[in-house]
């Protein structure tokens, strides 16, 4: 067997997307996944496709990603269950409405037209049954949500069709660099390639450490709740300003509730534990948002482990040793960026040049922040 | 001494009640919670409610015994919360429950799960049609409201429960269209090796034989070695099709079809707690691994009753007492040896016939046809699961992620073993190795309003 051109460490959505784009560009790619594809953050994602409220530094990449989401079937031959029913951030006071209005005018001044402010009438039309205390919202009409599992299946299948080899159950034990390139030791054997992409999510800094790099990274385990199926009445994804809640109805009719309420995690075992007192606050927020759902039964709760950086921006940059590239630490809002980040990463790996869209995401900023803190 | 309610007993069936009575005798004060409105579990369900002598007679002597057991449980003075659902359990043990529309959470030093068994789902083509239900569900209707189906009933499956139900139904004036016995023929050879061991349990076996003879004297069609069952109909079941031992396929009109292929331990709570489980070939199910006191691989978490392996109500009582004594010892309340010896003797006697019963009624092995709905919640067929297995070659959790199978309100209680079996066949690996779904809380559905009440800091009732 000949060595691949690129080894991608991590079979989450970002690893798969990078692998897909690299393979489309003619590279031989092998993905090394420690457990199984989508086991952690990707499989536990709320799958929000959101520009709403995004950090302006992410916007150039996010705008490209949004264009790609609107024709995602061109990329992976499946619509990934994506529907652009919009995303809303509702407010309960004039002061909050004013703050959102100012934020959006700053955004507009920077040239982004993705968000607008809407009043109560339009809000009621978009979300029937919404508690009357909410008087307006920030609204991104082209945003939406996808189906995380369907997205995983689509990216995996597309990568494989493009010639990517995906090895599951192959956790990485060590990285070695020599004149001949990289050697990656895994539980399932040894692999070699001139280039390595570290897409290991919450474990990204551990992989970096194997290559002698220190990249500050912590983790989070955002919890999700899903309910029994209800008649489809809510199209947009709804969140509340100042509260940890995101609220949507999936195309199956279930309510999917998330929004960053945190569970507990253990990086060594990869296991998470739920905090039901925190989930209770989410349930209370959901019932406040839409009083009619109080009697709806929760059928499942879960969380997944995701890498989190100090400034909540990802690390997407070349490593300190030749042929190594990092892409991790999306801090719980990486789903939307998947198609564009993979494309940009492929360009960076192939040309060695950091595209403009990725320049804010260097690992050096974290090292500097860490030193300053 | 332990403080008030350091011990939680989940389930007020034979095992939970016996454990509670035993603990009370030792001076312990457990709290017993149970989902039902009345104690008794499945076997003695609604036994305490006022009811006619004729119904009591029809349900048989084993059912009648429940009254005395329940009276003893009531007299023990043990704290008891009916209508209470346990929906999450954390190590340590923080326990989350709901009663009357509000959730509450409390800490216990030891937890005894006496949550019993569930019927093994019988996935045949058409099993989701209205008019097809399980024998166990039909028996609940008999016990709680003496409901007798108007039309003659088809009963299909295997095991002791259909025999008992048919006796009860006939005694109450119900009619049986036929019994389609799916037990594979030629079980005698499998039984012989266990016969000697079973001598001490012969009263249980003789009881079964007596039932069978009495039923056969009733003269309804009793077909053996039946396979390829199908329930057919548009809006509801209209007929049942089956193939008899001679290879001939029949189709008969049917308005009510009752299915049963044995019972399996309820393992969702022990799976969620990451307890070790072993695959039982004899019973075709996973069984939590327990020590001689019924303690699981998680310290302080105990099991008693059919949840620790199917053995029936009398064995469940013995296991309940043993677990109670184990917990007492663990909490430093000396365990009196004579009580333990007597409980162990009772358990030996009550499980002696079990290998014979298991061998007489082996778990079903016939292939599940592709068109059979496997996951009722997400409406996925056996064919969908086979296709996903061929495409992804993953374990139950991956297949769940890819297909949504097992993500519905039943939490995989209906499809878990079907998925396990299909994957084991597809990959040529053992059922134990194939494993089960990872269980996500809540163990039982809890409403958003109930959960929100937990935040308001409601104290345990």
Automatic annotation (TrEMBL), chain A:
One of its GO terms (cellular component) is cytoplasm. SUPFAM superfamilies: FAD/NAD(P)-binding domain. Residues 5-348 form the FAD dependent oxidoreductase domain. InterPro entries: FAD-dep_OxRdtase, FAD/NAD-bd_sf. It comes from the Bacteria. GO terms for molecular function: oxidoreductase activity. Keywords: Oxidoreductase. This is Sarcosine oxidase subunit beta.
From TrEMBL, chain B:
InterPro entries: BFD-like_2Fe2S-bd_dom_sf (IPR041854), FAD/NAD-bd_sf (IPR036188), FAD/NAD-binding_dom (IPR023753), Metab_Enz_Cyan_OpOx_G3PDH (IPR051691), Opine_Oxase_asu/HCN_bsu (IPR017224), SoxA_A3 (IPR041117). Keywords: Oxidoreductase. Residues 378-453 form the SoxA A3 domain. GO terms for molecular function: oxidoreductase activity. Pfam families: Pyr_redox_2, SO_alpha_A3. Gene3D superfamilies: BFD-like [2Fe-2S]-binding domain, FAD/NAD(P)-binding domain. Residues 6-318 form the FAD/NAD(P)-binding domain. SUPFAM superfamilies: FAD/NAD(P)-binding domain. This is NADPH-dependent 2,4-dienoyl-CoA reductase, sulfur reductase. It comes from Salipiger marinus.
């Amino acid at each position: 067997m000949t060595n691949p051109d690129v080894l991608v460490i991590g079979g989450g959505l970002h690893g798969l997307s990078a692998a897909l784009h690299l393979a489309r560009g003619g590279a031989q790619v092998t993905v090394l996944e420690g457990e199984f594809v989508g086991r952690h953050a990707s499989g536990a994602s709320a799958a929000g496709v959101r520009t709403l409220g995004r950090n302006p530094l992410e916007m150039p990449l996010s705008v490209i990603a949004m264009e790609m989401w609107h024709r995602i079937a061109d990329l992976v031959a499946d619509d990934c269950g994506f529907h652009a029913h919009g995303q809303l951030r509702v407010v309960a006071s004039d002061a909050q409405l004013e703050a959102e209005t100012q934020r959006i005018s700053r955004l507009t001044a920077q040239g982004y037209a993705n968000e607008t402010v809407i009043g109560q009438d339009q809000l009621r039309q978009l979300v029937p049954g919404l508690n009357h205390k909410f008087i307006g919202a920030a609204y991104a009409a082209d945003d939406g949500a996808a189906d995380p599992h369907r997205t995983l299946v689509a990216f995996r299948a597309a990568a494989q069709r493009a010639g990517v080899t995906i090895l599951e159950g192959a956790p990485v034990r060590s990285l070695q660099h020599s004149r001949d390139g990289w050697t990656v030791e895994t539980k399932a054997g040894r692999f070699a390639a001139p280039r390595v992409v570290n897409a290991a999510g919450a474990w990204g800094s551990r992989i970096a450490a194997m290559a002698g790099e220190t990249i500050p990274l912590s983790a989070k385990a955002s919890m999700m709740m899903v309910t029994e199926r209800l008649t489809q009445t809510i199209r947009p994804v709804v969140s509340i300003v100042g509260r940890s809640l995101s609220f949507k109805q999936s195309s199956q009719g279930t309510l999917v509730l998330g929004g960053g309420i945190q569970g507990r995690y253990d990086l060594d075992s990869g296991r998470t534990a739920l905090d039901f007192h925190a989930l209770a606050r989410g349930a209370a927020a959901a019932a406040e948002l839409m009083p009619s759902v109080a009697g709806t039964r929760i059928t499942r709760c879960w969380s997944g482990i995701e890498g989190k950086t100090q400034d909540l921006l990802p690390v997407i940059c070349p490593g300190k040793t030749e042929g190594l590239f990092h892409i991790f630490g999306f801090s719980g809002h990486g789903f939307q960026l998947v198609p564009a980040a993979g494309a940009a990463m492929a360009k960076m790996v192939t040309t060695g040049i950091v595209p403009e869209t990725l320049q804010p995401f260097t690992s050096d900023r974290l090292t500097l922040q860490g030193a300053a803190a | 001494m332990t403080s008030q309610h350091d011990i939680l007993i989940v389930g007020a069936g034979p095992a939970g009640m016996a454990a509670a009575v035993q603990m009370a005798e030792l001076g312990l004060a457990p709290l017993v919670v149970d989902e039902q409105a009345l104690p008794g579990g499945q076997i003695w369900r609604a036994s305490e409610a006022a009811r006619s002598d004729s119904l009591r007679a029809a349900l048989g002597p084993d059912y009648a015994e429940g009254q005395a057991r329940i009276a003893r449980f009531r007299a023990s003075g043990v704290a008891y919360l009916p209508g209470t659902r346990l929906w999450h359990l954390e190590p340590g043990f923080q326990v989350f429950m709901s009663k009357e529309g509000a959730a509450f959470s409390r800490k216990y030093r030891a937890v005894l799960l006496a949550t019993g068994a569930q019927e093994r789902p019988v996935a045949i083509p058409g099993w989701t049609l209205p008019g097809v239900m399980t024998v166990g569900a039909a028996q609940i209707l008999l016990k709680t409201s003496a409901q007798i189906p108007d039309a003659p009933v088809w009963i299909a499956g295997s095991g002791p429960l259909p025999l008992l139900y048919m006796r009860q139904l006939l005694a109450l004036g119900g009619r049986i269209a036929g019994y389609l016995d799916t037990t594979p023929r030629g079980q005698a050879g499998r039984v012989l090796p266990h016969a000697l061991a079973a001598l001490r349990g012969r009263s249980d076996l003789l009881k079964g034989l007596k039932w069978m003879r009495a039923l056969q004297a009733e003269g309804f069609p009793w077909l053996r070695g039946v396979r390829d069952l199908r329930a057919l109909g548009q809006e509801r079941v209209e007929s049942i099709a089956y193939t008899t031992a001679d290879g001939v396929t029949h189709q008969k009109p049917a308005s009510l079809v009752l299915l049963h292929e044995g019972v399996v331990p309820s393992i969702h709570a022990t799976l969620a707690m990451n307890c070790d489980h072993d695959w039982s070939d004899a019973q075709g199910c996973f069984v939590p691994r327990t020590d001689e006191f019924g303690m699981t691989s998680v310290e302080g978490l105990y099991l008693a009753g059919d949840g620790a392996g199917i053995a029936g109500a009398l064995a469940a009582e013995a296991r309940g007492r043993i677990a109670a004594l184990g917990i007492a010892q663990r909490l430093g309340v000396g365990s009196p040896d004579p009580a333990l010896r007597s409980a162990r003797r009772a358990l030996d006697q009550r499980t002696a016939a079990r290998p014979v019963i298991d061998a007489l009624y082996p778990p079903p092995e016939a292939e599940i046809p592709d068109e059979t709905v496997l996951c009722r919640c997400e409406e996925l067929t056996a064919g969908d699961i086979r296709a996903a297995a061929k495409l992804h070659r993953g374990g139950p959790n991956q297949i769940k992620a890819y297909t949504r199978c097992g993500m519905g309100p039943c939490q995989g209680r209906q499809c878990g073993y079907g998925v396990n079996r299909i994957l084991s066949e597809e990959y040529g690996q053992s059922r134990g190795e194939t494993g089960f779904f990872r269980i996500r809380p809540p163990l039982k559905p809890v409403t958003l309003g109930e959960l929100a009440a937990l935040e308001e800091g409601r104290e345990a009732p």
